[in-house]
Amino acid sequence: MSHNSFGHLFRVSTWGESHGPALGCVIDGCPPRIPLAAEEIQAFLDKRRPGQSKFTTQRQEPDAVRILSGVMVDEDGVQKTTGTPISLMIENTDQRSKDYSEIKERYRPGHADFTYDAKYGIRDYRGGGRSSARETAARVAAGAVARKVLPGLVVRGALVQVGPHRIDRSRWDWEAVDRNPFFCPDPVAAEEWATYLDGIRKDGSSIGAVIEVIAEGVPAGLGAPIYGKLDQDIASALMSINAVKGVEIGNGFEAATLTGEENADEMRIGADGRPEFLSNNAGGVLGGISSGEPVVARFAVKPTSSILTPRRSVTRGGEEVDVRTKGRHDPCVGIRAVPVGEAMVACIIADHYLRHRGQNG
Amino acid sequence: MSHNSFGHLFRVSTWGESHGPALGCVIDGCPPRIPLAAEEIQAFLDKRRPGQSKFTTQRQEPDAVRILSGVMVDEDGVQKTTGTPISLMIENTDQRSKDYSEIKERYRPGHADFTYDAKYGIRDYRGGGRSSARETAARVAAGAVARKVLPGLVVRGALVQVGPHRIDRSRWDWEAVDRNPFFCPDPVAAEEWATYLDGIRKDGSSIGAVIEVIAEGVPAGLGAPIYGKLDQDIASALMSINAVKGVEIGNGFEAATLTGEENADEMRIGADGRPEFLSNNAGGVLGGISSGEPVVARFAVKPTSSILTPRRSVTRGGEEVDVRTKGRHDPCVGIRAVPVGEAMVACIIADHYLRHRGQNG
Amino acid sequence: MSHNSFGHLFRVSTWGESHGPALGCVIDGCPPRIPLAAEEIQAFLDKRRPGQSKFTTQRQEPDAVRILSGVMVDEDGVQKTTGTPISLMIENTDQRSKDYSEIKERYRPGHADFTYDAKYGIRDYRGGGRSSARETAARVAAGAVARKVLPGLVVRGALVQVGPHRIDRSRWDWEAVDRNPFFCPDPVAAEEWATYLDGIRKDGSSIGAVIEVIAEGVPAGLGAPIYGKLDQDIASALMSINAVKGVEIGNGFEAATLTGEENADEMRIGADGRPEFLSNNAGGVLGGISSGEPVVARFAVKPTSSILTPRRSVTRGGEEVDVRTKGRHDPCVGIRAVPVGEAMVACIIADHYLRHRGQNG
Amino acid sequence: MSHNSFGHLFRVSTWGESHGPALGCVIDGCPPRIPLAAEEIQAFLDKRRPGQSKFTTQRQEPDAVRILSGVMVDEDGVQKTTGTPISLMIENTDQRSKDYSEIKERYRPGHADFTYDAKYGIRDYRGGGRSSARETAARVAAGAVARKVLPGLVVRGALVQVGPHRIDRSRWDWEAVDRNPFFCPDPVAAEEWATYLDGIRKDGSSIGAVIEVIAEGVPAGLGAPIYGKLDQDIASALMSINAVKGVEIGNGFEAATLTGEENADEMRIGADGRPEFLSNNAGGVLGGISSGEPVVARFAVKPTSSILTPRRSVTRGGEEVDVRTKGRHDPCVGIRAVPVGEAMVACIIADHYLRHRGQNG
């Protein structure tokens, strides 16, 4: 409801700038008595961490998370949540503020420099300040906690398109995702992308991407129509990620091209005597409520605007200039968006699980 | 923040079922002293109203709106908002509950029947109850009020794709939109669609569509990063509309295929001495904050699942059945989604205008 | 979170002015499958209704409530909540707007006339508009629904002080409450008050009062520290009632005069083997969380400012005038505040019950 | 709206336990370009800090605050807010966890031990965990920021009653407040209280108190009726402070004893040609909206329940025990509640100032 928070019962508030002393989040409403160690959160942060391959920014950040509140070691010796706010902090260490001094007065095209100035009349130009993708570390940390709220929930993401190159879905292999630096589920595509992205990188250029996130283990019944629909809240959460320009649920924009006969998911009684769907065009959500099928969301990330080719722009003072971003940047920010997308979906599902439990017992 | 409300300072709560006595909304936080007549709201409701052509449901509803609170006639004889909640009510008149009796026990594939039952354990089966598109009348009414909050705001929508058929953007003509029953801005496409949709209708089938909404007159600086971004809130609002499966801002999913050089909008100093953008790939939003360019959003609507061809399904009791929806339905629900999309975008912009004014004075 | 709503999961939004066509509320988040008939709500409205004795305003309003949404008759023939928003409407019938025409330009001392004008620059002067105590009918209606959310909850209120006259607590008799027009639990005091208040009424004067509300059947564990404490939310809800100037929980202001030895409630193991408190100075709340003891709240209502004695004031135009309120008014608005206080406490407890169930399962 | 946050546009979320590594808050929605140095916040923390006299707990905490985000040094060399979340952190240093080991299994009467266990099934027993008054340091820090939001706002508090001993209001002297360890505005009472409280302290007992907070410089028009009334939100904020059992606005409970003639504040046109009130019984709020008069609130704090005299209680395991609290405690927690009350009132007024600016421009 406020500017830097999301969620209703599982509520996450993030804070911090790219080049401030630290960044973090406060998770309010996490159920009590859930085992939670810093290492579990760290594991997800490590996936998102920059500087792990030549395809992401060379900024080196350990992204070491500390749990400052909301847990205690129980009598069984296990650290658990207590139901009070969980404050997580990650210190910034590799800040190199001087890299950014020359863009202090210049609006980088495609970045939020101009709009932050238009809004606030003051702008933390160091590394993009609050608009930096570094903020997403806090999301990933929150997502690691969210994953533990709904027992049985598994949320996984993958890069399914880089520039014009899509994966071949018949080759989808979740295990492949962790074996290439792109979170790509298609091992063949991953090899081709390596060559393609290396070219982008060497040119000092950048390229967009599409990420798919699939949540399994979501029981039927989650979602709060009309204005807290599960797919709506997922769309909102994904669109809030830096550089995201589009979001789809299930077959998404393709649904516009289908007839009712093609699109509707038929039902039958399964072997276990319970209703089951024969397809999942809906992406696990009907009328804003989960159907019990996997929840499937995709989002498009634009190419980062930090490129070596000079682009026309203006200064705060109204002068026309050409801007060429040196700094350390991602040739494809979509790559590191994979764990961020997973985290956001996990947080939304955790929240809806608690909301449903509240209203419906 | 709760289930049936959206907005933070300009806050809309809707209520009502398809076949209850009435539906409506309460608008909380509308600024005072804005002239507001029921006729102004009615004009937008009339655009959305069913039964106006053979391409939308034949349900006949006058959709006459009453203003129950929040206005008074000022000393100048003009009815104005007072700053207190504006309650709007629309009575349901053409309900024909009997049409729906046979689907009381059956889950219509693609509809929210199964999920509402899974969530609530009770379901208003009459016309879809709360999940009916009739609820969108309340949104359109709220949008009519929202349009008056930010002076100079113009929000217009158009149908840009029906099934596989897209408009030719070079023929875009806003005046054409009101001259065909599809809100289509391309007069040539409109004629082709008439034939195409007539075929869909006669087959008792249905088809998806894509709607584009453009908001002009949005000043730079609106949007509340990180989790109340302008594009995020628009995505959320559009995804909350019945049957929507995808949302895009600016060039949307196409951005995934572009390089940084192609995608970034360059800037120059305009004739008026102020910064201007040379393109609008961003769709008027950078870093979640409006740039001063037109805000451009698109959303995909799936085909309605109410079709004459029998589909396999199950009953509440666990029996396998075939469902064939008779009732009165839209061959392309996307058509009537145009004024609804406009309304949602208008509400979000009004809210962000007030939020910005609050935080930034 | 917004201006005319309260509650987090059981959320109530009210609307309407004293002299508009109607007033009402929307209840969002009520659990599904709760039997709910309009008659049940009406019973509580009838308690609050004006014109029932010479000690309350002579305005005659049937205050007949209609349920416009959120319920349906289930297969067992019982009308039940469906989990969707419950819209309640009460039409205004006895409005006599002309009574108020002469105070259109005058600020009645002690009323909200001046401050509404200062805030909004426009003011519905007819009967106080939105600031009228008529709005509390919507609260009472919402409270009637709230009472059904937590099984076993009993919320009762009583007038415990009128002007300087307090009840004798040793004579407290809940059955007496319904046998006098003051909701007074002390039959002896009730008789004395009749004489006292008759004098006030004949003088065209008014007097303040204190109301006590007791909620029984509240399980230990409800309340959301730190900023959604149960007592905090009750204080907020009671202070939002027209004319309330003070709120206490448990022994309230008297606690300031006690030592730690006197004030702390000791504990022992009860006959049922469970912890029990030996006293209830805390009023059923410790650290913002219910203790399982009855929740006890009191609130002070100021005398209505509508009196026959002329008071010095000013007009909108800046002229000095004397104001004498004729209209139809309550010699002691505290009387009718009893069912309103009950309703607010019931709503807060229902909300916290659902919140607790959400976070803690 | 969530559990550990308050405010709508100026929104404060606090986190941290008494004996965790740190505590703090995140302030979301603070306007940009406000000069803000850590030293300014520190000055208010120093007022609240324990261990400054023998009348407060002897715990020694430097309570040194760090600003982790939301500010930057502007081109004029002054550190200013940027409009992004302000994260404040205070490390805990003097924790002595061993003091509390023996109450791990015992519920201290009057404390929140039993209710936290009832709610969460797990409890941070070290120093009261989240329910400790240490959390109020975060409130004071937030209040220091809030004071800078509304230009001209002055919020001051004073202790006006200790046990049965009230100040003589005719001796009220704001300068006296800082010259005694009780924040007492009556220099004569302050001396008497020193003797009285010394006795309480030596007995290992404790006593309650009443605090008064006065806010000057509040323009007419702030407050969001019906459920975000200014006095309602102040009542909520004050009741959320540890150990508070009652709240009053203006003449509070005394209003119950007054007639309409006595209580209403009359108005005249002042020397400056603007309306003015001839008295302030209302405490600066009418109909939930500020009147332009000073906002006056009072709240009652119960005696701390940590006393040397053994009290009967039970253990988690259901055993009956006697509890005698050793630790380091306040003979009168009301003293340190003075800066906390000021801070809460400042936060609420800042929030309402922004809300009013949002809705009313």
UniProtKB/TrEMBL annotation, chains A, B, C, D:
UniProtKB keywords: Amino-acid biosynthesis, Aromatic amino acid biosynthesis, FAD, Flavoprotein, FMN, Lyase, NADP
Q: Could you say which cofactors this protein requires?
A: FMNH2
Write out the residues that bind NADP(+): R48, K54
Q: Gene3D superfamilies given for it?
A: Chorismate synthase AroC
- What is the cofactor note? Reduced FMN (FMNH(2)).
Give a single Pfam family match.
Chorismate_synt
Query: Which GO MF terms does the UniProt record name?
Result: chorismate synthase activity; FMN binding
Query: Which InterPro entries does the UniProt entry name for this protein?
Result: Chorismate_synth (IPR000453), Chorismate_synth_AroC_sf (IPR035904), Chorismate_synthase_CS (IPR020541)
GO cellular component term, pick one: cytosol
Name the SUPFAM superfamilies on file: Chorismate synthase, AroC (SSF103263)
Residues bound to FMN: R130, S131, S132, N242, A243, G287, K302, P303, T304, S305, S306, R328
- Report the CDD domains cross-referenced here: Chorismate_synthase (cd07304)
- Catalysed transformations (reactions): 5-O-(1-carboxyvinyl)-3-phosphoshikimate = chorismate + phosphate
- Mind listing the GO biological process terms from this record? amino acid biosynthetic process; aromatic amino acid family biosynthetic process; chorismate biosynthetic process
Q: In which pathway does it act?
A: Metabolic intermediate biosynthesis; chorismate biosynthesis; chorismate from D-erythrose 4-phosphate and phosphoenolpyruvate: step 7/7
Q: What is its EC number?
A: 4.2.3.5
Instruction: Describe its assembly.
Output: Homotetramer.
Give the record's family classification: Belongs to the chorismate synthase family.
Function according to Swiss-Prot or TrEMBL: This reaction introduces a second double bond into the aromatic ring system.
Q: What is this protein called?
A: Chorismate synthase
